[in-house]
Structure formats: C-alpha cells, structure tokens
Amino acid sequence: MSNHHSCLVKHFQSHARLDEQDIDLLSRLERSPESFGPEQDLWRAGDKPADELAVMSQGWAYSYVDHPDGKRTINDVYLPGDIIGLHEYALDSHQTSVKALEKSTICRFPHKHLETIFEASPKLTKMFFRVACLQQSILINRTLNTYHQAADHRIAHFVCEIHARLSRTNADLSNTFRLPLTQEHLGNILGLTSVHVSRTIGQLAEESMLFRQRNRITVPDLEALRHFTRFNRTHY
Amino acid sequence: MSNHHSCLVKHFQSHARLDEQDIDLLSRLERSPESFGPEQDLWRAGDKPADELAVMSQGWAYSYVDHPDGKRTINDVYLPGDIIGLHEYALDSHQTSVKALEKSTICRFPHKHLETIFEASPKLTKMFFRVACLQQSILINRTLNTYHQAADHRIAHFVCEIHARLSRTNADLSNTFRLPLTQEHLGNILGLTSVHVSRTIGQLAEESMLFRQRNRITVPDLEALRHFTRFNRTHY
DNA sequence: CGGGGTGTTGACTCCAATCAAAGGTTGTGG
DNA sequence: CCACAACCTTTGATTGGAGTCAACACCCCG
C-alpha cells in the first residue's frame, strides 16, 4: 500500500497515531468514490432511510435546510477528510440536505461499516467518538460566538474556524487560503443577508482585519483576528 | 436489584432494550451522587482537565458561557437522565460552564468509565454514539429553527423541544408541564432579551398558543404549536 | 461581446435591544 | 403572620443593527 494516505486517514491521524490495521479499517470507508458537480445534492432533508454516511474525499460541500419562505440555513461546511452525516446516525430520515459547492469526490458508506469498526477496534471507536464530539464542539463554538454577536464578529469567527479546521489536514496553511463560498453562502451560514455580509467584509477590510478577493481569504494578522473574536484555538 | 431503575437507564431504554449486564454497566456511571443547590456550578468554562462527564440524576441544569460584556449564552439544558459534558469528550478543558437551576443530584464519572464500556459492550457503544449524535441533532434543530426565525417561532420551538425531550423518560407527559426557567434564562437560550421574551410570551398567550404561569407551561394544542414552528417530532 | 451570477451601494423599514420605571411574587426573618 | 427585600415580570418610549428593495457595477465564461 502506498504511503500517500487518504484525507480521512490524515484527518484521523491528526488526532492520534494509527497502526496499519486501523488504517486499513478506516480506508474501507472510502472505497466507493462518487463525483459531484457544483450544486449537486448528496441527499435531501427528509430522505428515508438515513442509513449511510459519507467521506468527503475532495472538494467542499455543505449541509442545509430550505425554509418555506425561500430562505436557506446552512448548518455546516464539509472539508476534505470530514465525515458527512455523522450527526444523523440516530435518525431514520435525513435532517438536512447536503450539496457540493464545487466539483467534489464523496464516498458513501453504510452505518453498518461504522458498527463493524466499533466491534473490531476500541481505539478507532474512541476516535470516532472524539470526531463526533469535536464536531459538536465546533458547532457549539460557532453558535456561542455567532448567536448574539454583531456581524463583524460572526464573520471573523467563522474565518478563524475554517482556518483551524483546514490546518488539521494541512499543517502549513498560510495566512491566505481558499474559501469557495459566496457572500450569499456566508450569509446563510451566519444568519445574515448577503448585502450585510458585503458591507461587513468591506468594513473588516478597512480595518485590515481580513480581505476577500474572489475565492480567497487573506488574514494579515491571524492572532489579532483570533483575539478580536475571542477564538479559542484549543477547541478545534 | 430493584425494578426501579435510574433515570439514565430509563433514558437509554427509550432507545433500545437493554439486558441485565448492560443495565449493570450503565448503572456504574451513576454511583457518586453529589447534591447541588440552585446557581451552583458543576464546573466552569476553561477548567482543566476536562476528564469527566456527569449524569443528571435529579433536577435541571444548563451549560453556558459568559461574555465579556456581561451577557450570558445558554447552550443547552439538561434534564433528568441526560449526560452532561458528552460533547467535551475530545477537549482538554471545559468549553462551557454548567450550573444547576434548582436543587439537583448529579453524578460525575471519568472518561475512562466510558472507554471501559466501549470495550465491554458494542451494544452500549452504539447507544452512546446514538445519544451523542441525537444530542447534536437536537442542537442543530434548535439552531436551524431559531437562528433566523422571529421570537414567537423561537420560543414555540423550544417549548416543543423540551416537551419532546421530557417525554422520553416520561411517556405520559400531559400538555402542561414544569419548566423551571426564568424569562431571562429563556432569553439567554434563544438569543433574546428577557424583555422581549416577556412581550412575545404575552403575544403567544393572546393567540392561545401557549401559556406560562410561574414555572409551568401549558400548551392547549400541542399539534398546532408543532405545526406553527414546523417542529419535526421524529428527530428527538 | 453579451449575459448570468456575484458583489456593491443607497434609501428606507422594522424587529428586537436598550433604558427606565412600576407591578407582582416569593420567601425569609422579625 | 405580617413586612420587607430580592427577584421576576410587565409595560412604555426610544434607539439601532440588520433586513428589504432596488439599481448598478463587476467579472469571469462562453
């Protein structure tokens, strides 16, 4: 087997060392690649049954729900190495839809594979538990720092979050990185309108906190931005 | 052993049947009861290490963070049978503080006990995974239905959530139940001021959607309230 | 060169926050 | 058993941040 492991393995290895056997077990989850175009759905909220998860192999995706008034709420963003749909493990129908943001590769696998792992490896079991709980922590952090806070705070916090999450599989991430989300997407994640996102990013740029050109974000002083949003790096 | 099981066991039994051995394993988590008075903290955000969880045996508690401007965000509410701090399993310091709302009994247990269960019982492992994921689903549902939504919607949704969660260990819950939260608490959960909560509850009462007297909530027509907030009962 | 999706800017509106004060309720001690 | 204090709730007046509506600018792509 090659030394060049999948993103999922890299993701898990950022939590703890894995032996050959665990790597092998993990890799089985990433064996049925499907290609998705931009705007293509992996599944839809309400779809039944919800007896499978997926690994984000390449690209970006997001989970969302559409409200009757036409608004969309984005619940989470998935990066390479992330597991999609973990939080729906206990449900029998999908809670949220999942859509690719760009050309992506995603590997579905059934719940059963997860349970096989639970039986085969207590170590991987612990790690899956860690990953699931960490995902919840990240969500909670985003909520806590986004809920009552002003728009500039929200945007800055989200940028810090994405930087931290990308750093897990990409240790030498610089202070400029790709973020393939429109301002409309950002608004749907953060509970703002795209208009207000535009104004607020403009304001943050004036203050040299962060710049956004097309799909790229540049943060001149990451530590300053983290301080501004009281971003706690240890919880990612 | 008595036939009268703890709330934790009841909670887990609402997910799947348990045999004697699993009940025994589970019960071990609830063996060191501590009594908490109202306003007493179980732990504080930032406390280190975060190597223990707790079972809510009796009473109500909530997890929260205080912001530098004096505002408080409440992240979750814990009911009898709930596990406290599950989402912090992957962290090495506490993300949120936890405070009892009223006189309560809480049993701490170390992470290690959880891992013992992972090794001893694949069935309980699956169930813990379910419980952790379901908690995340509930949080996501609350976020989705609360984030952009108007105040009346938020309050109604939260009331539906609590009713659903209480029903898990209390199958014959009627349409009036105890909710020992002040309007200030509700505001801190839902991202509103207590003033606005008061006004909105008044408005909901005018429309006969729900009534609140002291610590009690009465919902004349639960199905109507669920419909109003688009509350999906299957995800709790 | 269009043309569709995306981003920017301005004017106006509105929901909820804020500030402030007065009622209610509870529970504790005299 | 009453009185008072602390807390909680209600109500009113005012303010403000973000939404809405709308037009225009941009930019990549075909």
What is the name of the CATH class of the largest domain in chain A? Mainly Beta
Approximate helicity band of chain A: 40-55%
Alpha carbon gyration radius of chain A: 18 Å
**At the third CATH level, what is the topology name of the largest domain in chain A?**
Jelly Rolls
Largest interface: A-B, 46 and 46 residues
The coarse silhouette of chain A is globular
Work out the strand percent of chain A: 15-25%
Instruction: Indicate the mean pLDDT of chain A.
Output: 94
DSSP summary, beta strand count of chain A:
11
Q: Helical region count of chain A? A: 8
The H-and-E topology of chain A, N to C, reads as: HHEEEEEEEEHHHEHHEEH
What are the low-pLDDT stretches of chain A, counting only 5+ consecutive residues below 50?
none
The CATH superfamily of the largest domain in chain A appears as Jelly Rolls
What keywords describe this structure?
Arc Repressor Mutant, subunit A; 236 residues; Jelly Rolls; four-stranded antiparallel beta sheet; 2 domains; alpha+beta; homodimer; 41% helix; globular; DNA-binding
Blueprint of the fold:
Two copies of one chain form a homodimer.
Chain A: H1 7-13, H2 20-27, E1 33-36, E2 41-43, E3 52-58, E4 61-66, E5 72-78, E6 83-84, E7 97-100, E8 104-110, H3 111-120, H4 122-144, H5 151-169, E9 176-178, H6 183-190, H7 194-206, E10 211-213, E11 216-218, H8 222-229
Antiparallel strand pairs in A: 1-8, 2-7, 3-6, 3-8, 4-5, 4-7, 9-11, 10-11
The structure holds a DNA duplex (30 and 30 nucleotides).
